[in-house]
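Q: Quinone oxidoreductase, please. Structure only.
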Amino acid sequence: MAQVITFAQTGGPEVLQLQDVSVGAPGPGQVRLQHKAVGLNYADTYFRSGIYPVSLPNGVGNEAAGVVTAVGEGVSNVAVGDRVTYTGFTNTLGAYSSERLIPAAPLIKLPDNIDFDTAACITMRGLTAAYLMRRIYPFQGNETILLHAAAGGVGLIVIQWAKLLGLTVIGTVSTDAKAEVAKAYGCDHVINYSHEDVVGRVREITGGVGVSVVFDSVGKDTFMASLDCLKRRGLLVCVGTASGKIPPFDPAILARKGSLFVTRPGLADYIADPVEKQELVDELFGHVASGRIRIEIQTRYALAEAEQAHRDLESRKTVGASVFVI
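A: Structure for Quinone oxidoreductase:
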């Protein structure tokens, strides 16, 4: 029997339930996958809470790494015994499990120098950082960005990638301890928003000009401040809503604040093309394997601790990467 975390109604972390299930044989286009590590991502809370609607009951999580134990008819991209990782959206939902059936198409073969725990930390976060750094904006170097939640799992990868591109990084954090973590990963300037004015500090750091790009995973609480941190014709990239959904706004405000741009991208649209996906995968794995981007797992949970893991995540107790180990 396999263990799986499911939820039958949306709500807080308490709706997550651990169940024993039987995993059958894979159907056409599917594989049976034995998980070794499962990623913990803030997006998981969006499915659980209902921000991202799905049919119920359903599973949680869409990032994990493991070993293929059986393949169904028509599967040619992977074979039994292959070490793989995956991320996706609704087509991979249900990663919080010890074993599962999954479509073969999203699977990514792991190189020997990437272990399972690391893979479960970087497939979603790392590919998110990859498209943010390589597809969203044509960075020319010698530019400055503002990164909210700089000490988070995506944030620490973005910091390191940005430094590889020659960018100056201003990061925001909620505690002095997180500020030290962000600095240790290369963040040039760290703003503790619990007692510092973000807009004022950004303007001070940039000589009043503002930043080229803001990466904002917080949402409602930071949206207007993020706009005010941008230079003329700057870009706000809304990559999450940890504090709640961004309220409706008049687009004319973008003109008044400097002919600004706003985008709300999703990872699925940047890995939909297999060629582009493989390009991002190769660059990500190459940086990690070489040590140019380091991944340190701060917290490991058992699958049965999913409720506590979500509580820690939503209370911003977590720093950097966290995984479930199977």
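A: Brief note, in case it's useful. Residues 237 and 293 are 22 Å apart (CA to CA).
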